[in-house]
Each structure stands twice: as C-alpha cells, then as structure tokens.
Amino acid sequence: METTVKAENILKSNGLRKTQIRLEMLQIFMGSKHALSVNDIEKDLKSSHDRVTIYRALNSFEENGILHQTPDPNGNMRYAICSDSCPEHVHQDKHAHFICEECNQTYCLEDVKIPDVQLENGYQLNSISYTMNGVCKECQLN
Ligand SMILES: [Zn+2]
Ligand SMILES: [Zn+2]
Ligand SMILES: [Zn+2]
C-alpha cells in the first residue's frame, strides 16, 4: 500500500484529524528502519514547523498507540512506529531495543521479547526497558 494511503488510514482508524504534518511525520516513520528523534524528524520534514507542533503530533501518536518511545545513547527519547497496532494508552511493544555503537541509531528488535518478570510485593511496575548495545547489520557490512 502506498504510504500516503497507509498514513491516512492510521489517522482515520485512530480518530485523528488529517493534518499535513501528521501525514508527513507518519510517512517519515514508515520509511525509516530505525527510531527517530525530534531532530531527525525536523530535518526530514519538507516544510519547517516549530518544535511545539512536532511534539504535539508525537504526543498524540504516542497516546493513540501509533508510536512508542525508544532510548538513545544519551538518555534522550526517540520514537518508533508500533508494530501491531497498540491499543490506546497501553503500549504492548514488549520488545528489546538495540543501540548501534557505530551509527548510534536505535532499532526495534520486534522478535526479541522482554520476558515476563515477577516483582516482589510492594512494587508497582509501570514500564520495562530492555536495551542492548552492539553493532547493527548495516554497520557490519561497511
Ligand atoms: Zn506501542
Ligand atoms: Zn549501525
Ligand atoms: Zn520498539
């Protein structure tokens, strides 16, 4: 399916209004193999938008289970598209993330599932992150 149509469908099925920036951002994410930071998105957008607009779009995508947060090497946030559509407000992206030491990109390892853990009593679990570091496929070829 063409990415424009795909992006429109994602917005529609999540009840989000179709705006140029939302469509464009979704297409940027669909075309990227790795997670993207706000800087990356800003660079890839054809027209310039202020950061507030970009953050707002990211927030609504995250709330609607379209994008999830992923780590970067400096503890900042990157975002990646959710694989199987996550339900609203509950992300089920229980996969590991891989940070490449050469290109510094973050990759979703959809097939590497985070194991279920049992916490001792008294701790409430809100999120788990499972990050691995190494050299990605692309960088090993170079
Ligand atoms: Zn998700
Ligand atoms: Zn790499
Ligand atoms: Zn991910």
Automatic annotation (TrEMBL):
Binding-site residues, Zn(2+): C100, C103, C136, C139
Membrane-crossing segments per the record: none
Molecular function per GO: DNA-binding transcription factor activity; transcription cis-regulatory region binding; zinc ion binding
InterPro entries for this protein: FUR (IPR002481), Fur_C (IPR043135), WH-like_DNA-bd_sf (IPR036388), WH_DNA-bd_sf (IPR036390)
SUPFAM superfamilies to which the protein is assigned, alphabetical: Winged helix' DNA-binding domain
GO BP, sorted A to Z: negative regulation of DNA-templated transcription; regulation of secondary metabolite biosynthetic process
Cross-referenced Pfam families: FUR
Annotated CDD domains: Fur_like
Keywords for the protein's UniProt record, in alphabetical order: DNA-binding, Metal-binding, Repressor, Transcription, Transcription regulation, Zinc
CC cofactor: Zn(2+)
Record note on cofactor: Binds 1 zinc ion per subunit.
Keyword Transcription listed: yes
Family of the protein in this entry: Belongs to the Fur family.
PANTHER family named among the record's database cross-references: HYDROGEN PEROXIDE SENSITIVE REPRESSOR, ZINC UPTAKE REGULATION PROTEIN
Protein's name according to its UniProt entry: Ferric uptake regulator, Fur family
Provenance organism: Marivirga tractuosa (strain ATCC 23168 / DSM 4126 / NBRC 15989 / NCIMB 1408 / VKM B-1430 / H-43) (Microscilla tractuosa)
